[in-house]
Write a structure and sequence with these properties.
heterodimer, A: 263 residues, alpha/beta, TIM Barrel, 9-stranded parallel beta sheet, B: 408 residues, 4-stranded antiparallel beta sheet, 18% strand
């Protein structure tokens, strides 16, 4: 059982939906992003998705691209991101942390070394956008063996024939990408998402969390109501980009988590 | 199976799209179903005589193939060594080898019922070729081009617009070819249902590296026949410039199993291949990593962040290289060298003066290496260089570097 599995068991017993918040590690600097991260659980965040900056984030829209660039310009590295996790864990041993990013920084560090370090730092799961099931032997299987969840993306283009392949070797939860597109783009529609989530849930016992295109408390509520929870990223990252003070950022996150928890 | 076939260099990629450890399908789940259906469509087309009949007809009557294999007599005299032949792919319609591949991909797009074509471009040659073929078939065309390249390749931007394409200047990242490819991938993932991504080089997720190589192999196939006709034997050395590596792969591939043919790829050395990283020589100055759907040699820092290269040639200004080249380097079948901006500029001028051919800056890199090695080779050594593009697009860049005032 990872912290993710424990969290979903708790939420299920309470009949609550999960609210997942994404921030970019090191944006605009480590102190700021660590302060935001530490405040997320009290702002109603059930699971933290910590973005790992990469120079070429092909699945991300401008908001998260720029966040990654700010972090890299500030000297963020994978090692510093793992250190952020260690620092966060010093004061919180329950909130699950999922690292989300692209494969090359992990490949560059060396998969085995990365998995050992991530596990020891207190990371619970990984979302790596550019590793489809066809590349499972790269990181997915070694990660599961190392005791980390490997959370797969399912998308509107994942048809019935392909879905079993996507669900095999997935653990923790399934991340349903609500739109064909990049982060921070078109708005997710509950009417479209609901049947898709139902289709996935018919094929797995894992919780299904929906992300991409969710930027308001109302959308968070609507989407969470047809799934096991939802993710908000770009809308929170934008608050940080606008230089909002910590308490305002966290108050904003609270409105989103309240929305999701009403769902 | 005879031993020589078992040891073939021409059997890749495997069913995972790998050449050794290189290649693969490192894309988001949204794109995966499309990549698989493209692979299936290509496998069908490959063995369909009507597909190749249509290609041959367009290659002959629209592109002007076969391109000549030209004995460069004056360059040969100038070097005083090897006998130098130029494969004249700069005489193709649109002035470069790029159209060989674009035709194949657009015919596939039509078979798949896609109505909107996107492409990335660096120097603009692939963008022009894509815009051209889209105009020919009445398809909507959107070309992503780094904002920096839009500036230094203005004539090609205007050409694409005349041909009816929408040119999108890419300002994300540092605004070069790599960023154009990122934005093309973002467009594709957004418009996955009606859009076909026409990749311009032997890179990207499987099946692109193999598919683009197969379409470009017309260069090597023709060269084989032409040199046999002229000289009665195969060449001793092949030389081609490499950015992503499509013109080189096209020339090299049909010769991979001819062990006596030396194969040399020439990367852009920029200001020199050293730790300042002001070059685009991925094979010499990079290490294996994963970007744009494939594992290959990449210019990157110790944390796996991708570095911007530098080259005077926008067409070579890319931090990666096709995965098959990465594999050919590792197994030692091909040799990879690099040429600096200054050496390429000098070769550019030699070619103009000696042969009356204005070469693109990309093949000027290959030519610079030819100028280095030809004088040391014997007179019966047959050397074939791929003149993969003409230099009209580069005259402004060259004028600037030579301090020549072009006026408004």
């Amino acid at each position: 059982m990872t912290r993710i599995d424990t969290k979903f068991a708790d939420l299920k017993s309470q009949g609550r939906k999960a609210f997942v918040a994404y921030i970019m590690a090191g944006d605009p600097d480590i102190e700021t992003s660590l302060a935001v991260m530490r405040g997320l659980p009290d702002a109603g965040v059930d699971i933290i998705e910590l973005g790992v900056p990469f120079t070429d984030p092909m699945a991300d829209g401008p908001t998260i691209q720029l966040a990654g660039q700010r972090a890299l310009d500030g000297g963020q590295t994978l090692e510093k991101t793992l250190q952020m996790v260690r620092d966060f864990r010093a004061g919180n041993d329950t909130t699950p942390i999922v690292l989300m990013g692209y494969y090359n920084p992990i490949y560059s560090r060396g998969v085995d070394r990365f998995l050992t370090d991530a596990r020891e730092a207190g990371v619970d799961g990984l979302i790596v956008v550019d590793l489809p099931p066809e590349e499972d032997s790269e990181l997915c299987l070694p990660a599961q063996e190392a005791g980390l969840n490997f959370i797969r993306l399912a998308t509107p283009t994942t048809d019935a024939g392909r879905l079993p392949k996507v669900l095999t070797n997935t653990s923790g939860f399934v991340y349903y990408v609500s739109i064909t597109g990049i982060t921070g783009a078109a708005a997710a529609q509950a009417a479209d998402v609901g049947p898709e989530v139902a289709r996935i849930k018919a094929a797995t016992d894992l919780p299904v969390i929906v992300g991409f295109g969710i930027s308001t408390p109302d959308t968070a509520q609507e989407i969470a109501s047809v799934a096991d929870g939802c993710v908000v990223g770009s809308a929170i990252v934008k608050q940080i980009a606008d230089g909002k003070p910590l308490d305002e950022v966290l108050a904003y996150v609270k409105t989103l988590s309240d929305g999701a928890h009403r769902g | 199976m005879p031993d020589d076939l078992m040891n073939s260099y021409m059997t890749g990629p495997d069913d995972q799209g790998r050449f050794g450890i290189y290649g693969g399908r490192f894309v988001s789940e949204t794109l995966m179903p499309l990549i698989l259906s493209l692979e299936a469509e290509y496998e069908r087309a490959k063995t369909d005589p009507s597909f190749w009949a249509e290609m041959d007809d367009l290659w002959k009557h629209y592109v002007g193939r076969p391109s000549p294999l030209y004995f460069a007599e004056r360059l040969t005299e100038y070097c005083g060594g090897a006998k130098i032949y130029l494969k004249r792919d700069e005489l193709n319609h649109t002035g470069a080898h790029k159209i060989n591949n674009v035709l194949g991909q657009i015919l596939l797009a039509r078979r798949m019922g896609k109505t909107r074509i996107i492409a990335e471009t660096g120097a603009g040659q692939h963008g022009v070729a894509t815009a051209t073929v889209c105009a020919r078939f009445g398809l909507k065309c959107v070309v992503y081009m780094g904002a920096h390249d839009v500036e230094r390749q203005a004539p090609n931007v205007f050409r694409m617009r005349l041909l009816g394409a929408e040119v999108v200047p890419v300002r994300s990242g540092r605004g070069t070819l790599k960023d154009a490819m990122n934005d093309a991938l973002r467009d594709w993932v957004t418009n996955v249902r009606d859009t076909f991504y026409c990749i311009g080089t032997v890179a990207g997720p499987h099946p692109y590296p193999a598919m683009v190589r197969d379409f470009q192999s017309i260069i090597g196939k023709e060269t084989r026949e032409q040199i046999m006709e002229r000289e009665g034997r195969l060449p001793d050395t092949l030389v081609a410039a490499i950015g992503g590596g499509s013109n080189a792969m096209g020339l090299f591939y049909p010769f991979l199993d001819d062990k006596d043919v030396a194969i040399i790829g020439v990367e852009a050395g920029g200001h020199g291949v050293d730790d300042r990283m002001e070059h685009c020589a991925s094979l010499t100055g990079g290490r294996p990593g994963v970007l744009h759907g494939n594992r290959t040699y990449l210019l990157q820092d110790e944390d796996g962040q991708i570095l911007e290269g530098h080259s005077i040639s926008a067409g070579l200004d890319y931090p990666g290289i096709g995965p098959e080249h990465a594999w050919l380097k590792d197994v030692g079948r091909a040799e990879y060298v690099n040429i600096t901006d200054d050496e390429a500029l000098a070769a550019f001028q030699v070619c103009c003066a000696q042969e009356g051919i204005i070469p693109a800056l990309e093949p000027s890199h290959a030519l610079a290496h030819v100028l280095k090695i030809a004088p040391k080779l014997p007179a019966d050594h047959l050397l074939v260089m791929n003149m993969c593009g003409r230099g009209d697009k580069d005259i402004f860049t060259v004028a600037k570097h030579l301090g020549f005032e072009m006026g408004a």
